[in-house]
Amino acid sequence: MSVTAHAHVDDHAHDDHGHHHKETFVTKYIFSQDHKMIAKQYFITGVLIMGFLGIAMSLLFRMQLAWPGESFSIFEAVLGKWAPEGVMDADVYLALVTIHGTLMVFFVLTQGLSGTFSNLLIPLQIGARDMASGFMNMLSFWMFFVSCVVMVASLFIEAGPAAAGWTIYPPLSALPMAQQGSGLGMTLWLVSMAIFIASSLLGSLNYVVTVINLRTKGMAMTRLPLTIWAFFVTAIIGIISFPVLLSAALLLIMDRSFGTSFFLSDIFIQGEVLHYQGGSPVLFEHLFWFLGHPEVYIVLLPALGITSEIMSTNARKPIFGYRAMIASILAIAFLSTIVWGHHMFISGMNPFLGSVFTFTTLLIAIPSAVKAFNYITTLWKGNLQLNPAMLFSIGLVSTFITGGLTGIILGDSTLDINVHDTYFVVAHFHLVMGISALYGMFAGVYHWFPKMFEGKLMNKNLGYVHFWVTAVCAYGVFFPMHFVGMAGVPRRYYENTAFPMFDELADVQVLMTVFALIAGAAQLVFVYNFIHSVFYGKEGPQNPWKSTTLEWTTGNKHIHGNWEGPIPEVHRWAYDYSKVDENGEYIIPGQDFVPQIVPLQKDEEELHH
Amino acid sequence: MTTVLILAVLVLVAIAIWQMTKIFELSQLKAETSQIANDSDNQTNGYLLFAFLIFIYAITIFSFYNYGKFLLPEAASAHGDEYDSLMLVSFVIIFFVQTITQALLHYFGYKYRGKKGNKALFYADNDKLEFIWTIIPVVVLAGLILWGLYTWTTIMDVNDEDDPLVVELYAQQFGWTARYAGEDNVLGDANVRMIDINKANILGLDEGDSYAADDVVVKELHLPVGRKVNFKMRSQDVLHSAYMPHFRAQMNCVPGMITEFSFTPIYTTAEMRQNPDIKDKVRRTNEIRSERAANGEPNSDPWEFDYILLCNKICGKSHYNMQMKIVVETQEEYEKWIADQGTFAETVLNQGDSDTAMNGVQ
């Protein structure tokens, strides 16, 4: 099968050029089937717009946490009737928390991140003219767009958006009497997510098929850049786990609208007994986290893949332990599907299950540790080019370690008892998956901006400012947060004033919020830099970072089909940086990297990595 | 006031960012337009990476110094001691690894900052190294897993040995109710379908179940010190979580099922109030509160330490204020207190006779 696919692409390489003379504005910019355009569409919709909303919401509720009950005109301006006289309402607080989580996890870091970089890089780095199915790819984006529209629309309805937490545990999410947001808001949330899942599946299937079938001649799986490995495995995890969330959502829709009792039983609310009998909310938790935990890695693996590539390029060194990195990605992917129960140690499920999940969870620390050590070794004795993308990659490793280590506490069922659902958890996952994945994404944008916008480069000085302010603030927000959690403060509390034991934590809350506001402002620097560079950015050289991978062999100008002539053939792995012969000379004199398209030189060994 | 403060901070930050951009621009000796890092960028950012390492250490020390005292005090339950030891050991390991790996990462970033003409080392593999850093986490984690699982099994083994006190914790939006099993120490059957608000049978006890008659329903949790308590949790509407941080205890309350947790309180409330950490905390908190009182702000009554039960699973609008006071006292005090509480028979069944008669007529 794969052979025929290769042949097909090669044969029609030149036919492709014939097609795009007919391109109109609509087919080029809107219903485009070109992977590069779709990548940009994902970035603008998923990251810039949804990311802006998600981060803005977090700033609003952080202000409420720091100055509980205080009146702010900004609240009144953006929340309207939900902030009478500028004081945030408790219901809308929960709505903001819920939608912030949903937007950031699913829209920004799943489809925004994977959609942008899988689409942009898979064909370019494996040497393909486009995705296996351009039409499916276009469909995937537009379904994503529709799900965004539905989610955003839910913010404007009378009773407010979903507010049961991004995990939407029933019965809270199932009963409009339990919470305002569980009415139409939750219906729209579920509809939006159902469309989102369909979009994600279409995208993932496309990525998997493309990587398996459309690699150029010589591009063995063991020569793939780690970015592609990460996107490929991420797509597989998505295909395995997202359908389970869809089934959970469907069953919840049934419970909500058609009176079934999958998740509900024995409920007495507002003076009456409901008819539900025999369901279990714990079942929902299992289904949700069967996706929810792999989801964490769906978010993180692409960021790690991007980091591997950027770190190696900018260190002018091969990534250390290429095969170990692949093995780690595979091990993480496999283990990620059997650890979901660590979110449920105290959910009421059998404690024996908790033991099993503790075991598998702590196992996942091993491949993660291997990855961290390999990154550090990659820096060792390098010739580090500290571009903004490189700094974000180093930053990712830093937050990945800091956030990952506290996972040892949360993954241990015993220790989880007292920190479960406290701010300790919030600090942990924001560092290890939120901030890390965002860093990976930013790194990717700075690094591959020339591939998105025809050779233009982003301003590096603004990039440095963006990185350093963000890096300091991320620790400023989330490091002290561990202490808030260890003090016993539960998450999703509208304010902590009802408990005198939390009085003295008020100052920490203010500190975290100030850091968060500054961090938010720093993201505007990025947005400005991005937009400015799109229009006024200076065109750089074709291969600005002196990288070995195939995407830099394409011209700056975008063409449908990526390469003018035939697709280049690959002769080596992607990490021949600073490789020398016996005499200590670079393989290509005067150049510290050997592109993948360069055949092995006389007497050169393709080391068995 | 705070609004002004925030605005001031934001303005200062904007200025700082602007200044930083300037510095970065000026640090390029020639007005070079290339957006690719050059030696001077590498130099500046290499130093900044080193500074960032110091920042990470500084914020760690700052947080421990200033916020370390906020951490929960010594555990007040029998199993809590083991919990705290495991936590401490895990933290020591974490901080050891954190200190070393962050140092390596940022130091390498600084040390090997790029310079034109420098040669990187082609170093793609080392099986021995990789084996070492695979096996070390394996061994350390194996130790933690074994210890953790042993403790977990002990904590979660809810059994009837040692004559435990049986107490039901009943959750609803947005409050807690406790039910003691009474003389027979057996909880009567209950289900939300048997709730009868008119008769104040708010927990849905089975009026025909003889075990229910001596049950005691209360709004404040009293526990005798040194006696094991087996909690049975129920919820009538949505998920809640019974979180008792001082006892290192937490369990979700799930509608449709009964969940369990068990612990033995080892310090009475009075003893805990004498704990030096608690005394400090109360003093600090009351300083804040007296300041508030002076400014005429709310939440300014002096505070006295009490154990507390919080809801720790999002349950709706007033989730943030769903709590119940827990009093741990001596056996005698406890007996005296429980004797003053009416049983289910006294408060509902007998007083409700007339209602039942009326229902019968209808």
Parts with pLDDT < 50 across at least 5 consecutive residues of chain B: 354-362
What is the average per-residue confidence, as pLDDT of chain A, rounded to a whole number? 92
Biggest beta-sheet profile of chain B: 5 strands, mixed
Strand segment tally of chain A: 2
Strand residue percentage of chain B: 15-25%
Mean pLDDT across residues of chain B: 90
Largest sheet of chain A, in brief, is: 2 strands, antiparallel
Architecture per CATH nomenclature, i.e. the level-2 architecture of the domain at 165-343 in chain B: Sandwich
Low-confidence stretches of chain A: 1-20
Calculate Rg of chain A over CA atoms: 25 Å
Specify the structural class of chain A. mainly alpha
**For the CA atoms, what is the radius of gyration of chain B?**
30 Å
Please identify the structural class of chain B as seen in this structure: alpha+beta
CATH topology (fold) name of the domain at 165-343 in chain B: Immunoglobulin-like
Quaternary structure annotation:
heterodimer
What is the rounded distance between the termini of chain A? 28 Å
**Per DSSP, what share of the residues of chain A sits in E-state strands of 2 or more residues?**
under 5%
CATH superfamily of chain A, by name, is Cytochrome c oxidase-like, subunit I domain
CATH-derived topology of chain A: Cytochrome C Oxidase, Chain A
Tally the helices of chain B. Answer: 9
Q: H/E series of chain B, N to C?
A: HHHHEEEEEEEEHHEEHHH
Protein name (chain A): Cbb3-type cytochrome c oxidase subunit I
Pfam family, one (chain A): COX1
Keywords (chain A): Electron transport, Heme, Iron, Membrane, Metal-binding, Respiratory chain, Transmembrane, Transmembrane helix, Transport
InterPro entries (chain A): Cyt_c_oxase-like_su1_dom, Cyt_c_oxase-like_su1_sf, Cyt_C_Oxase_1, Cyt_c_Oxase_su1_BS
